Amino acid sequence: VQRAGPASPWRGLFFPKQLGPPPRALLGRQRAGRRRGPSRSRCGGPAGGMGLEMEPLFQAWSYFRRRKFRECSDLCSQLLERPPGEQEQPDSEYTVFQAAWSLKTRALTEMVYVDEIDLDEEGIAEMILDENAIAQVARPGTSLKLPGTSQGAGPSPAVRPVTQSGRPITGFVRPSTQSGRPSTMEQALKTPRTGLTARPITSASGRCVRLATASMLTNPDGPFINLSRLNLAKYAQKPKLAKALFEYIFHHENDIKNALDLAALATEHAQFKDWWWKVQIGKCYYRLGLYREAEKQFKSALKQQDMVDTILYLAKVYLRLDQPVTALNLFKQGLERFPGEVTLICGIARIYEEMNNISSAAEYYKDVLKQDNTHVEAIACIGSNHFYSDQPEIALRFYRRLLQMGVYNCQLFNNLGLCCFYAQQYDMTLSSFERALFLAENEEEAADVWYNLGHVAVGIGDLNLAYQCFKLTLVNNNDYAEAYNNLAVLEMRKGHIEQARALLQTASSLAPHMYEPHFNFAVLSEKVGDLQRSYTAAQKSEAAFPGHVDTQELIKQLKQHFAML
């Protein structure tokens, strides 16, 4: 009877070249998202030593310019509590009361403001209960939901770890790459929900609720504005106040319905000629899940005023509708009007990366660096691509560049340690991993480092150290499927068959998208004579990685066994 694999005590069992997180953490838990940068003020605080005090409203504005939003809000509250006679300013269009009200509204908004363009969280309900599907069976290369739609340029899962959806892990952690799109509801609900990879039931129950909680903390005495008693039609006729009020309702209070009503009244008052209000209506529609209506608003806004942000919002709608090719065309048309715009080039690279077209993604990331040579995401993704292309020396240069730029975190030293080991610069390997363990902010990061240390121990032949490292990985993160798989291989070397089978079953249940546990379990079952379980596991391995030659040979041998029976 012929068995798969070379003639060795543990045939067919192997260590995956780089499983999971090595560079899943490639450049930190820094999310891709643009936040408003600090703005400098030309005016200081109270003039010390001269006996002069700044006018309170102007001082509040100074606090706002210097991003001291709490002080600005408190000072505006004091202005709003003054008697009505002190709030009049006859030579101005607005009274001091209105100015302080508007400024406090903006300050409270800035406390919880997050840019909507990049930071998006897709919940389980949006992925599984999606009614906007264009085609159930998409053509290859036209969908983000179906794995295996790469155009031949994607790396093999044997070389580069993949997510649940079958796409390779990225070099930069973004909200959309925290965990892939699960193919079934059962798989979605079984996704490990840790502090860093928890996926909410819906996007409305995720980040938005947490932001609303933060907004409650900013006002311990209750809400600043009672939205239920607000006359939206009155405020819609005052454009300057209406825009500040809309951002407050949308970002701070997270009341999308009232924000949409205000935006509709305001754009009607502007005779549908203000592009800004159309963009806000589109944002409200997007948040409510009305993607086609949002698309109409963004397109109308682009006709009136060509803006990069509007292009990014519209591309976001197309990606949610699973139309990556349309989003690519939109980005390329935007580059014709805004040549060299980094956000548009980066958007194209991200889409190619999600479509498993790694070579095209790397080319566009290089174009990003031509425009902005300090772009962290581009440097991290190119370094990741070189690492998995068996070029650790080149990857090391990119990670050293990040270190020179001031990035100093666990993930970077983790990757530096891996690159040094595979580039045979052994003197720096352990010191880099020691620094990574020192900088680990939580148990998940420490688990990644211990797992990679286990790989280093396997590489130098110290299997006892590898065993201890993988055990420490599970101590820090009990859902680490890759560590279970490799521990099973070590147990098999020791002759502990039952322990190895139990570990492989655990790894298979935690990560059904990985082919290594299924294949190892199939080989192990075939050795002990359990051919039916071996055949079932081999079929799962083939489904996870259709191009795996060893799996195909094992299935062929098992079919021959069954034919003889």
TrEMBL record:
Q: SMART domains attached here?
A: TPR (SM00028)
UniProt TPR repeat ranges = 481-514
Matches recorded under InterPro entries: BBS8 (IPR028796), TPR-like_helical_dom_sf (IPR011990), TPR_rpt (IPR019734)
Top-level lineage group: Eukaryota
Positions the record marks as coiled coil are none
Signal peptide positions on this chain:
none
Q: Which Gene3D superfamilies match?
A: Tetratricopeptide repeat domain (1.25.40.10)
Going by the UniProt record, its keywords in alphabetical order are: TPR repeat
Bias-annotated ranges (Polar residues):
175-186
Gene Ontology cellular-component annotations:
BBSome; ciliary basal body; non-motile cilium
Q: A Gene Ontology biological process annotation? A: non-motile cilium assembly
Give one Pfam family.
Answer: TPR_8
**Official protein name in the record:** TTC8 protein
- According to its UniProt entry, this protein's organism is Zapornia atra (Henderson crake)
Its gene is: Ttc8
